[in-house]
Specification:
By secondary structure, the protein is α+β, with helices and mostly antiparallel strands. It has 2 domains: 261 residues, Probable tRNA modification gtpase trme, domain 1 (Gyrase A, domain 2); 72 residues, Beta Barrel (Elongation Factor Tu (Ef-tu), domain 3). It has 10 helices and 19 strands. Strands 10-11-12-9-3-13 form a 6-stranded mixed sheet, sandwiched between helices. A 6-stranded antiparallel sheet has the order 18-15-16-17-14-19. Helix 2 packs parallel to helix 8. The two termini are 37 Å apart. 45% of the residues are buried.
Length: 342
Amino acid sequence: MNPDWNEFLQTQGARIEAGVVTDYGDAAGELVAARDGRVLADLSHWGLIGFSGEEAKTFLHGQITNDLNHQLAVDQAVFAALCSPKGRMLANFLVLPWLDEILLLLPGELREALQKRLSMFILRAKVKARDASPDWVRLGLSGPGVALAVADWLGAPVAERPLAVGQAADRFAVRLGADRFDLFTRPERADEDWARFAAGARPVGAPAWDWLMVRAGVPTILARTQDEFVPQMANMDVLHGISFNKGCYPGQEIVARTQYLGKLKKRLYLAHVEAPAEPGQSVFCPAFGEQAAGLVANAAPAPEGGTDLLVVLQIAGHDAGEVHLGAVDGPALKFMPLPYPL
């Protein structure tokens, strides 16, 4: 986190641990605010990789799961993933357009390693990869009516389609949902922009924003879940993060085989458990005995208590209806509908 920005957030009441805003003194109240009202979150723990050069789009198109040639535009971001040769996700991210650069937004803990991995394949391509995180302060804004506030900030409304991008001279926004946005602003104007949005939204820590992501059914690959899931297992196909019409990329054969041979046995589900939960934790169901039936992908404390989580689980286990966290006799999961159809 930028030291000046860190200091500013502390003047606003932020409690910061290892570069992550944990809360502003009332974690429970912030979760309720995220559920019921307008909230504003610092997203400095998310990193950015910038790709520039005349072959940047062509290079990335050949490395990741989505079709940048036909889906990415100046006013449109896309979800995508980078896979291992075995078709398992090493990271998933938002691909963002900014002038003559392409940005990947992903958890900061993965940024350096992913940048190095992609850089290995640049070879003679006319592409440069860099850490673009210091160039932008990342904010999250959610709640009723925030689209109007974002339009006023940009000077024009952001289109209503998913992942639409609105840009101004030194800032841009991505529509994550009807009332949820990622905002990107320059460090020199971040204090002013924070004050602008905080006048109508409650500042919240990262756990409240994580909860919004979980409830939206959008998974995030973390260090603890790398190389675990084929993209379809994490619903990346439903989230339009995979193209099945483009050319090859690492793991493409496995991803395509999963799609066309009907071998998908796991899916991402939304659930609640009356206990703490962590990404990478195993879940069990009677039909599979002592063998784990799936893994927790993401978890966040829920406003009502307990934990809401995204779990990648055997479809048969979900359909049977009895799933437990951590052990065959662990706390029971209660499933909730995702905000999109499977």
